[in-house]
Amino acid sequence: MTGKTITEKILSEKSGADATAGDYVEATVDAMVTHDVTGPLTIDVFEDVTGDDAALAAPENVVFTLDHHAPADGVQAANNHNIVREFAAEYGANQYEISDGICHQVMIEEGFVEPGDLVIGADSHSTTYGGLGALGTGVGSTDLGTAFATGELWFRVPETIRFEVEGDLPDGVYAKDLILRFIGDVGFDGATYKTAEYGGSAIRDLPIHQRLVLSNMAIEMGGKAGIVEPDERTATYLEEQAGLEVGVDPDLAADDDASYEAVYTYEGADLAPQVSKPSNPENAVDVGETTGTDIDQVFVGTCTNGRYEDIRVVADVLTGERVAPNTRLIVVPASRAVYQRCLETGVLEALVDAGATFQSAGCGPCFGTHQGALGDGDVALATANRNFPGREGSMESRVYLGSPATAAATALYGEITDPREIDTTRYDDHAVSDVGVVR
After folding, report:
1. Where in this chain does the record put each Aconitase/3-isopropylmalate dehydratase large subunit alpha/beta/alpha domain (predicted)?
2. Phi, psi values for residue 341, rounded to 5°
């Protein structure tokens, strides 16, 4: 019998079937999440499905966050917030307030996700949970509203593409650079409805906050999921971060004879910092091909790179320095807890002293509506996950994507700068503690 991928193992466990790629299964869902944009529609579907006998199948596993228009940037946003608040109170769901953080960060910090879980969300970046060895995937509000009522959802078991990186990553190269390279090699739709499974010694050496980056951006190559095999580092992180005592089942690892649609292999030492040029994440090139590009705004944040370790990299580069003239630096932490740690460790003060605008937790300008939306002709470099036309504001703006280290170097000089040209080693991101939140 052919071995199984991690995805096949999780969906087999959750469906009670011997699931292999291409099969259709009905699976029990462990956790569900939505936010202030997709939440109201999800609620409408749930109420249509349940009628007068409305009840959540497992209210303790349902999570709402107010993160996209947070704080509310208009009357409609405020009304949507109230719809979510009232529903969660009536049905006993978990609800997190404005500035508590981005849904994916909150789900992880608050312990809603464990290795081997099946997690769905009405947000495409629900793939993030694969960084903990879970199967996380985005679904539509219709599917999520139905799952609210039943606790189950059907899936087609995805094929899997494996990405293996061996050896040590060079200074200045981070998980963001890896995933941009992967997307560039595979293409924007090269992994459509497939799982991206990440492995190799370089991946095993990554701290959890960087593994989450790989899984988060699997969707940018069309992926249904992105998974890193969980290990003892995962278990330690969950215990320290969320107070969860979880064992890591060695059987959850992919089998040696698992079947993959394709395998991409890389040598860590050969990799360079990457930048994705406008206006698609697949336009990834070595940073040297973009150096010298004038930048109006640098944005550090999002569910991709808004964690404490990401912001700390930027602060260490800019401590005692100033953001370049005519360049704006906007920093938005991924959660209130991240904000608090930045405050307690002096990171917030260092960035404000350097000229940054440090804002309350949430999605920020990644959503393109407030907290730093771009105007016509603006050129930005962001640690975000997407750079489509209009993604961060005007359709006439242009957005480059890069790592926090690249963002820091760019903010310092006002033009895209190779992070290897400045001292980013004062804070060794590869060796930092996995826990980015003070409890």
Report:
1. 9-289, 291-414
2. -70, -35
